[in-house]
């Protein structure tokens, strides 16, 4: 009997130091191996220790036992630490060292004293030692009174743990009673440490020891402990033995007890007991699935609970779910408080911590926390757990819910069956595990087919081909599986389960044989559940092989025994007795034979080949048999030399090769030809094969998951061509530009695959002595056995071989691997070294090689990598430094590869060193070979390329850069590429790009030979370029990466080009620079419109500054020089010359002191400012200014006059003011402006200061009916606003200039109001706020034109209404305007429409003469941003990922372009309504030149039919856009200065609005939709000078404005777009709208909702046959039928022609009926030898004849095109006439007019109809309507010449008509006598006939204008006057 002193094991003094570190070392070490297998022989149950711990603490009195307050370990905190009191045995077992730091785990919360005696507790902690072995520490803790000698008042427990918690509540829940006052209790712990996991036996054994002690039984504890340490346990897999006794062991510790130990049948399956079921109960399905995914994808998981046993169980359960994978990172089910810093480790872990320390875990940002007590799982934001792939996720979830809640399926049944018995907890646990086992079987199905057997002897080396597995399963993009396969757990799985010859278990059977069943059961839940229960039975049987054996019998202490005072403290035991018992048992065992576990090793079944988890369709490239047939045919044509046939099939093959099956088919076909010894090809064959290989490889990812690159690798080193004697070029030199070749993982997988093939062959080939190697009896033929089968057989035979034979096999395998390494070093040098060393830069940039310089994938260190750049930079003096760099990079890449694979494959170090020596030589030899190949390949005759097609150029257009060979690639538009829409594949096309002074032009032909000889043209003006981007794209011919360029234009064209390899980078760069230079010339004179045809004035420097003096001098000079005409004498009065005005001081007076011009004959002295007297040079200015469009329009509208008649001047409310004639007040306004008659010129200067850019309000249009005027201006300046709307009685000590300006501004607005006729009601209130709400619906048409600050105003802000926030009134669908009759006379005389932000907080006019309408408008920058998105939507740069109409509509909606169109139309209709109701409107938005211009132009277009004619629209654009200073050059970025501002299409947006109106009212516009597209194209093209510069001022300064007034040269190119339109209109009706049949007084009110707007086809259409059709000279052939279509030489007259939407011009190929008839007419006239009549004359004659054929009842007119009386509600729908009665024709009788009276607008129109309109219903014989006729001279509109016309006075229709000549049938104009006010004698004006007496002149004054007539003599004049007077009196 020995007593051993255990002082050496006391760990008190080390607990804060090395002990913790050693514990940490054990805790933190990942379980990297697969764990120690159970011992081969029967062994003691506890090959470890029994320890008795007591508390040893400090003397600090710090409180009693309770929850730990804070992190422990601080000095003096009152914490204690454990001390080993005794251990048995006292020495370590040989194979099981003592686990350091175990005392921390015995009391994880710290060693503490307690004031009361707690019940004993039990839990199992898990420790992992330095060798990754797990030790199970069962701890039973009980409490004894602290000895008075101990100076310990509290010892706090701080132990950490590594296992999972079981059921068992915390000690505090048991009833406790305090001891005597002041009595403290100290903890003591019995710890049992074992490598075996038998928690129940541990609990019983320790409980027995405690029971003997506490109950005072008469049993020696030494004997019990000795028996415990020496009992024998059965081996795992007992069921495979002969008897039950061998698998089950009953043990007794000598205290009348009996315990049964059952070991599991298969030790590879985890033991879970009930832990999985408990985990699901605590956390729920979703949370457990999250934890499962987190653990598999290597995230940190932390469990929290107050119960240590539950923590242990939860961790155990999670690990059981991961089977067959083993968790290989930090695993600590119970972590002591002292080791909480472990939680901040960077590696993944599964750790359990007492919930008391929850606060300590708050700062952990990347840890997933599972609270077992609360049932929650918290995933931090920064952590992404990839989801399980569908459909496995949903299937798993539903099966789990069936297992956990079987009642769920029956819950909704009307007659539920009697409840079935739920599974027991243990069985439910196994069912849940079975679900996850099935999940893994589905995930990993077929994994054995992707194993590479690299070595068989002496130990198997196995690698997994991850890419092939993912590719064949169709899971390449699945994030979850990818991470699982990359994880350490899966690496362990491969090395453990990849072994071909080993014991198998349930998972092996499942994954090999049950996959088909699982797939079949997918949609049958009950069959799935049955399968789950079958698997659960097997799992249960594994854990409980013999449930019938008698159960445990162990004595337990009585109730509340811990409260009784123990007879004595736990005694110190006699170690000697225990050691003697152990020694006796050891001696007995030495004599017994060792019991060897009989392992049944077998060949592991591989199962069926793998299938994709989810059959995904391969999209457009379904691999039909036809596609594969095309591939095979093409390859056979190539090898048979039928190159023409092959060329035809090649494009189809290249398209088919997008599909995986076609790529496989190609590799198989090429492989067959290699086998047939056809690898040496001629040049054409070689090119074809290389192109197909490149096409295959371009879609390979770096992993090559479909094995395409792997299949091609042997082929690229086989196919070759002879360049010259002794020089052969292999295919690999042409397929290097693919990312897969620089991916180490690809090479490793390829290497291992080839090694496996050779190793397999090694064992299948006959031995040298003629006999085969021993392969056993295998029924399968030799060549069908897989490498795994061969390896399995070899492993089985291995123990039976002699040592020499074993050595020989090892050596052979090692040599095989070594030879493959040499082979691969060669292969890699082939594919990594470029053919041309000048392309070495490309090599470095390729993905992989560049990265490898900094990051290595190999096991060998990459310390050399960082110094690569420096080492070769030092050699920059050498010529071949760059080549060396490539060679060095390749050598390093190959060396890393060799290091990695050879180390893993067990190559000897000598061989490895030899390889390192060999690699540089291999690379160098290959470089030398390539030099010769490169040299010879350059001598090859170039491939015959198609001839370059020269583009047609405009007159004056010059080529800047001749054609650069390029490929035009398809962009995101499908039409040209033969996509889903069908049609020919016009793109990609091969040709050239040309740069001219005007355009960028591509001309070429499709690369697809099946399309035929079609020419493809795509061009756009250089000026329209908006974005240029360099791209790197694949050449469509040989699939090599090429430099490219993508050019996008604002005319909606996109050139996506790849430069041909013959185009050097210098040429491409030169093209870019020249393009940029032409796009942004430094000065406007550098644009094509100026350089075309003539040079500008030499020596004139571009204007550099805006200095006022010089620019005004220039202006004055140009005005004098360019003005060609003088005004009539009657307008001129002589005045004394005044000195120059202030802005002209310093200029010498002009030489010619001639008559001056004054607007008004008599001016009050107070208004005579210096600027009101015109200098002599101004006379010329005035004569030019009055010829401008705006002045002609003012005359037409009757807005002002330059007449000398005083009475006329005073009676007119407005006048034309020349105050801005020198552009001194506002540079962006025209020279002549309409202002109120009462406002003097000198006041305008002050008014203008209140407005932005000095753009003060001026009149631009007047309504002929209501006389309301439309004004425009810039936005208000802040100071102006304050001055205008300040309180009227505000004290002003002294008026500042700003105040006086504001006062002028107020007076000016009052003058405007005073000049407009008043429509006041009886109360005199003019306000919108009194509108009847009955007309408003819910919000009203106005939303509210809110009276700011005025009582009674409507509530909703008009800004939000116009911004589209409020819906329209319910009664008005589609955004249609409401009945205008709701505008009652209560309204303001003037409405000011301004920006909401600008008018904020502004007070209204106190007299309520004007009213503010604040609206929200978009800014120019928003237009620009919206247009960019519109461009990308209509012309995408690359195909959409999911091509569908929805994707286009979505991107169109995102652009918000149609929303802006909607807002513009909405505001315009609002203004039209106001004007039509008699209120004037001032539009005062932004600076007055963008949105203001859009709105006022649209308002005039909608209100005045004149502007809907060709002439009127031209006048509108000239007046509102050009004269009023829209900044065309600035918005179009015409020069270098505007480059940064970018293209802002304000004018294009206006044209889009006109297009929308035109669509809705097609009969109201004289011009066609093509006219709008033409203007839209040329406003950005800079072909004409019309749309250049920003204002009239700039145009005059450059001498542009009046140049066309000079004499014309015959064939000079048109400088003005209007002139071009006029010329073209004479030749072709392309700008004419045949449906034009206007209403004279029609005011258009279009629908404006986005749903009513259409996308303008200008944005989406294209004509690849000829390019954009807007340069008419370039269109192929005249508008007549092309030559080849005319009948000639007996050819058939009609030939069938295919019209392709994106290729042909449809209006040309399929003209409308009228155009076709006109063409036919011209053709017939030509045949008859007559000169062809102009189309306009023919059309006019046809219209007149049509009218004459009409009947009084109107039945005779078959067409509505010519009649002007279509009811308004049908006309307003335009082409959408289907809303009328079905089948009805448009009746033209009066009835139809009256029937339209039901609509408000119809009734309004009817009320306004003039007599002539009614009479026009009846067309009778012409002579009946001619009361009097003859010739009169008529003066044209203002400044037009006199012309002789044939006049007809028609008393029946009450009108005066005139014609060009007597026989003319087409009336040129009508004067309605109802509008005539007076007929008076007239006076001759300038240009009148010279020989006629003055008395032969007479004037007819109408409400619109004054007509000047001249008869041939005085009597006829008198007769005309009498006839007209009598006609008037008759009326």
How would you explain this protein's 3D organization?
- Helices cover 36% and strands 12% of the residues.
- It starts with 17 loop residues before the first helix and ends with a helix.
- The longest helix is centred in the middle third of the chain and has 30 residues, at 803-832.
- The N terminus is likely disordered.
- It has 58 helices and 40 strands.
Strand order of the largest sheet: 23-22-21-20-26-25-24
What gap, in angstroms, lies between the N and C termini?
151 Å
Query: Which overall shape is indicated by the principal axes computed on the Cα atoms?
Result: elongated
**What percent of the residues sit in helical stretches (DSSP H or I)?**
25-40%
Helical/strand content category: alpha+beta
Query: How many helical elements?
Result: 58
Give a quick account of the main beta sheet: strands, pairing sense, barrel closure: 7 strands, antiparallel
Could you list the spans in which at least 5 consecutive residues all have pLDDT below 50? 1-48, 56-78, 149-179, 238-244, 615-622, 767-782, 840-848, 850-883, 1094-1180, 1203-1208, 1279-1296, 1320-1373, ...
Mean pLDDT rating: 75
The percentage of residues in β strands lies in: 5-15%
Total strands: 40
Radius of gyration: 50 Å
């Amino acid at each position: 009997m020995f007593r051993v002193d255990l002082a050496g094991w006391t760990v008190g003094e080390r607990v804060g130091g090395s002990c913790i570190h050693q514990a940490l070392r054990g805790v933190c070490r990942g379980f990297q191996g697969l764990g120690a297998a159970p011992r081969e022989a029967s062994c003691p149950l506890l090959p470890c220790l029994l320890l008795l711990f007591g508390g040893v603490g400090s003397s600090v009195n710090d409180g009693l036992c309770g929850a730990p307050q804070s992190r422990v370990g601080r000095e003096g905190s009152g914490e204690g630490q454990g001390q080993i009191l005794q251990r048995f045995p006292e020495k370590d077992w040989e194979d099981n060292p003592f686990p350091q730091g175990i005392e921390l785990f015995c009391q994880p919360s710290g060693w503490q004293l307690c004031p009361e005696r707690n019940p004993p507790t039990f839990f199992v902690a898990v420790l992992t030692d330095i060798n990754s072995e797990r030790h199970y520490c069962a701890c039973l803790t009980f409490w004894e009174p602290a000895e008075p000698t101990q100076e310990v008042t509290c010892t706090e427990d701080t132990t950490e743990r590594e296992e999972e918690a079981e059921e068992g509540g915390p000690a505090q829940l048991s009833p406790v009673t305090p001891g005597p006052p002041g009595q403290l209790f100290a903890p003591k712990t019995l710890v049992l440490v074992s490598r075996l996991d038998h928690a129940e036996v541990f609990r019983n054994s320790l409980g027995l020891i405690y029971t003997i002690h506490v109950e005072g039984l008469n049993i020696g504890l030494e004997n019990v402990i000795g028996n415990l340490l020496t009992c024998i346990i059965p081996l795992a897999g007992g069921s495979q033995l002969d008897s039950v006794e061998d698998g089950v062991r009953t043990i007794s510790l000598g205290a009348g007890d009996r315990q049964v130990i059952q070991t599991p049948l298969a030790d590879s399956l985890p033991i879970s007991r009930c832990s999985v079921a408990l985990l699901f109960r605590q956390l729920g399905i979703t949370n457990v699935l999250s934890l499962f995914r987190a653990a598999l994808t290597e995230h940190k998981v932390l469990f929290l609970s107050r119960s240590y046993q539950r923590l242990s169980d939860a961790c155990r359960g999670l690990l059981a779910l991961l089977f067959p994978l083993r968790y290989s990172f930090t695993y600590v089910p119970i972590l002591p408080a002292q080791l909480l810093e472990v939680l901040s480790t960077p590696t993944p872990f599964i750790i359990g911590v007492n919930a008391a320390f929850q606060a300590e875990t708050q700062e952990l940002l990347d840890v997933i926390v599972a609270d077992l007590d609360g049932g929650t799982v918290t995933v931090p934001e920064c952590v992404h757990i990839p989801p399980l792939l569908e459909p496995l996720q949903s299937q798993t979830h539903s099966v789990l819910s069936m297992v956990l809640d079987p009642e769920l399926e029956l819950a909704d049944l009307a007659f539920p069956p009697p409840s079935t018995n739920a599974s027991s907890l243990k069985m439910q646990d196994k069912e849940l595990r079975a679900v996850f086992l099935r999940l893994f079987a589905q995930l990993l199905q077929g994994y054995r087919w992707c194993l590479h057997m690299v070595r068989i002897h002496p130990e198997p080396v196995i690698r997994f081909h991850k890419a092939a597995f993912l590719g064949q399963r169709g899971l390449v993009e699945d994030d979850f599986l990818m991470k699982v396969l990359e994880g350490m757990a899966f690496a362990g799985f491969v090395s453990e389960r990849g072994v071909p010859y080993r014991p198998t278990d349930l998972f092996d059977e499942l994954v090999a044989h049950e996959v088909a069943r699982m797939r079949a059961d997918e949609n049958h839940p009950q069959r799935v559940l049955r399968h789950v229960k079958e698997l659960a039975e097997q799992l249960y049987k594994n854990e409980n092989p013999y449930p019938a054996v008698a159960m445990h019998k162990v004595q337990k202490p009585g109730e509340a025994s811990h409260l009784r005072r123990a007879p004595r403290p736990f005694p110190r035991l006699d170690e000697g007795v225990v050691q003697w018992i152990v020694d006796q048992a050891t001696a007995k065992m030495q004599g017994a034979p060792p019991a060897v576990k009989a392992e049944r090793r077998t060949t592991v079944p591989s199962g069926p080949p793998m299938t994709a988890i989810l059959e995904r369709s391969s999209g457009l490239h379904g691999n039909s048999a036809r596609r594969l047939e095309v591939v095979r045919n093409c390859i056979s044509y190539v090898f048979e030399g039928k190159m023409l046939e092959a060329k035809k099939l090649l494009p189809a093959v290249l398209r088919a090769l997008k599909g995986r099956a076609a790529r496989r088919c190609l590799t198989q076909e090429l492989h067959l030809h290699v086998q047939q010894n056809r690898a040496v090809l001629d040049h054409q064959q070689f090119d074809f094969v290389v192109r197909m290989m490149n096409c295959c490889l371009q879609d390979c990812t770096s992993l090559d998951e479909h094995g395409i690159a792997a299949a091609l690798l042997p082929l690229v080193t086989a196919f070759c061509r002879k360049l010259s004697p002794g020089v052969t070029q292999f295919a690999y030199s042409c397929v290097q530009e693919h990312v897969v070749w620089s991916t180490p993982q690809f090479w490793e997988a390829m290497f291992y695959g080839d090694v496996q093939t050779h190793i397999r062959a090694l064992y299948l080939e006959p031995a040298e002595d003629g006999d085969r190697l021993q392969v056993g009896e295998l029924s399968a033929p030799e060549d069908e056995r897989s490498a795994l089968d061969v390896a399995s057989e070899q492993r089985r035979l291995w123990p039976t071989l002699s040592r020499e034979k074993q050595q020989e096999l090892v050596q052979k395998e090692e040599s095989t691997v070594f030879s493959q390494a040499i082979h691969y070093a060669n292969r890699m040098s082939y594919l990594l070294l470029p053919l041309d060393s000048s392309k070495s830069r490309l090599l470095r940039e390729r993905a992989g090689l560049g990265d490898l310089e900094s990051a290595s994938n190999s096991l060998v260190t990459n310390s050399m990598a960082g110094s690569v750049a420096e080492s070769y930079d030092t050699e920059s003096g050498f010529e071949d430094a760059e080549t060396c760099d490539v060679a060095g990079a390749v050598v390093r890449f190959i060396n890393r590869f060799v290091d990695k694979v050879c180390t893993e494959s067990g190559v000897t170090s000598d061989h490895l060193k030899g390889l390192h020596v060999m690699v540089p030589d291999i690379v160098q030899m290959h470089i030398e070979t390539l030099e010769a190949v490169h040299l010879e390949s350059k001598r090859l005759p170039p491939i015959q390329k198609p001839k370059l097609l020269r583009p047609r150029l405009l007159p004056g257009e010059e080529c800047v850069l001749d054609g650069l060979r390029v490929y035009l690639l398809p962009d995101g538009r499908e039409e040209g590429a033969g996509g889903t829409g069908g049609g020919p594949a016009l793109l990609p096309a091969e040709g050239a790009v040309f740069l001219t002074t005007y355009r960028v032009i591509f001309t070429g032909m499709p690369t697809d030979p099946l399309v035929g000889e079609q020419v493809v043209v795509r061009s756009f003006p250089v000026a329209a370029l908006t974005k240029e981007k360099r791209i790197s794209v694949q050449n469509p011919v040989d699939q090599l990466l090429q430099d490219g360029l993508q050019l996008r234009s604002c005319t909606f064209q996109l050139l996506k080009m790849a430069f041909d390899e013959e185009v050097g980078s210098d040429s491409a760069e030169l093209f870019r620079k020249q393009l940029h230079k032409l796009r942004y010339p430094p000065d406007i004179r550098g644009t094509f419109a100026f350089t075309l045809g003539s040079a500008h004035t030499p020596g004139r420097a571009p204007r550099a500054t805006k200095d006022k003096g010089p620019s005004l001098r220039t202006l004055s000079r140009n005005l004098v020089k360019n003005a060609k005409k003088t005004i009539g004498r009657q307008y001129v009065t002589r005045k004394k010359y005044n000195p120059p005005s202030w802005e002209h001081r310093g200029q010498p007076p002009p030489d010619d002191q001639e008559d001056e011009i004054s607007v008004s004959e008599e001016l009050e002295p107070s208004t005579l400012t210096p600027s009101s007297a015109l200098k002599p040079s101004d006379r010329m200015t005035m004569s030019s200014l009055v010829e401008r469009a705006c002045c002609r329009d003012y005359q037409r509208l009757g807005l002002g006059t330059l007449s000398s008649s005083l009475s006329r001047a005073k009676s007119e409310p407005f006048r034309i003011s020349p105050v801005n004639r020198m552009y001194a007040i506002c540079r962006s306004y025209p020279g002549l402006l309409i202002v109120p008659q009462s406002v003097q010129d000198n006041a305008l200067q002050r008014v203008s200061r209140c407005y932005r850019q000095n753009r003060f309000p001026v009149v631009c249009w007047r309504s002929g009916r209501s006389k309301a005027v439309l004004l425009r201006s810039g936005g208000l300046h802040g100071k102006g606003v304050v001055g205008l709307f300040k309180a009227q009685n505000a004290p002003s000590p002294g008026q500042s200039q700003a105040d006086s300006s504001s006062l002028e501004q107020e007076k000016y607005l009052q003058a405007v109001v005073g000049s407009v006729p008043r429509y006041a009601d009886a109360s005199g209130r003019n306000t919108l706020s009194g509108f009847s709400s009955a007309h408003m619906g819910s919000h009203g048409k106005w939303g509210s034109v809110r009276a700011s600050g005025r009582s009674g105003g409507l509530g909703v802000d008009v800004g939000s209404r116009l911004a589209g926030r409020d819906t329209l009134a319910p009664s008005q669908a589609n955004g249609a305007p409401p009945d205008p009759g709701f505008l009652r006379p209560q309204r303001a005389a003037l409405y000011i429409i301004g920006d909401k932000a600008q008018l904020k907080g502004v007070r209204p006019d106190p007299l309520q003469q004007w009213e503010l309408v604040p609206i929200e408008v978009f800014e120019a920058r928003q237009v620009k941003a919206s247009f960019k998105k519109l461009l990308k939507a209509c012309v995408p740069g690359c195909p959409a990922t999911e091509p569908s109409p929805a994707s286009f509509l979505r991107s169109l909606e995102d652009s918000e372009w149609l929303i802006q169109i909607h807002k513009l139309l909405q505001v315009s209709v609002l203004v039209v309504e106001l004007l039509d109701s008699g209120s004037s409107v001032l539009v005062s938005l932004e600076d007055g030149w963008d949105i203001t211009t859009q709105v006022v132009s649209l308002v005039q277009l909608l209100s005045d039919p004149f502007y809907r004619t060709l002439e009127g629209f031209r006048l509108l654009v000239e007046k509102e856009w050009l004269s009023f200073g829209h900044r065309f050059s600035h918005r179009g970025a015409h020069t270098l200065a505007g480059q940064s501002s970018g293209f802002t299409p304000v004018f294009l947006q206006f044209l889009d609005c006109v297009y929308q109106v035109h669509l809705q009212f097609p009969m109201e516009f004289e011009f066609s939709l093509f006219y709008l597209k033409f203007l839209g194209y040329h406003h950005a093209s800079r072909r004409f000078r019309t749309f250049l510069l920003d204002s009239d001022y700039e145009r005059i300064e450059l001498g542009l404005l009046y140049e066309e007034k000079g004499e014309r040269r015959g064939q000079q190119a048109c400088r003005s777009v209007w002139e071009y339109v006029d010329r073209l209109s004479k030749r072709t009706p392309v700008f004419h709208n045949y449906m034009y049949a206007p209403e004279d007084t029609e005011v258009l009110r279009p629908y404006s909702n986005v749903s009513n707007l259409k996308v303008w086809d200008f944005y989406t259409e294209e004509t690849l046959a000829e390019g954009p059709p807007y340069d008419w000279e370039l269109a192929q052939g005249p508008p007549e039928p092309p030559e080849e279509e005319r009948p000639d030489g007996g050819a058939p007259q009609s030939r069938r022609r295919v019209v392709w939407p994106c290729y042909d011009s449809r209006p040309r190929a399929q003209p409308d009926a009228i155009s076709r008839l006109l063409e036919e007419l011209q053709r017939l006239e030509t045949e008859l030898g007559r000169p062809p009549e102009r189309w306009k004359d023919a059309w006019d004659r046809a219209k007149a004849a049509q009218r004459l054929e009409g009947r009084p009842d109107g039945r005779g007119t078959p067409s509505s095109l010519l009649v002007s009386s279509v009811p308004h509600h049908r006309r307003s729908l335009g082409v959408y006439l289907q809303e009328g009665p079905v089948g009805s024709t448009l009746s033209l009788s009066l009835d139809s007019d009256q029937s339209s009276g039901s609509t408000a607008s119809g009734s309004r129109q009817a009320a306004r109809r003039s007599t002539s309109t009614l009479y026009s219903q009846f067309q009778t014989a012409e002579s009946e309507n001619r009361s009097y006729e003859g010739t009169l001279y008529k003066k044209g509109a203002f400044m037009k010449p006199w012309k002789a016309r044939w006049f007809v006075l028609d008393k029946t229709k009450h009108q005066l008509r005139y014609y060009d000549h007597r026989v003319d049938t087409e009336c040129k104009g009508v004067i309605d006598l109802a509008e005539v006010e007076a007929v008076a004698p007239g006076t001759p004006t300038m240009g009148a006939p010279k020989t006629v007496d003055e008395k032969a002149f007479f004037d007819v004054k109408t409400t619109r204008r004054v007509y000047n007539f001249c008869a041939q003599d005085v009597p006829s004049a008198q007769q005309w006057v009498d006839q007209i007077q009598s006609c008037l009196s008759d009326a």
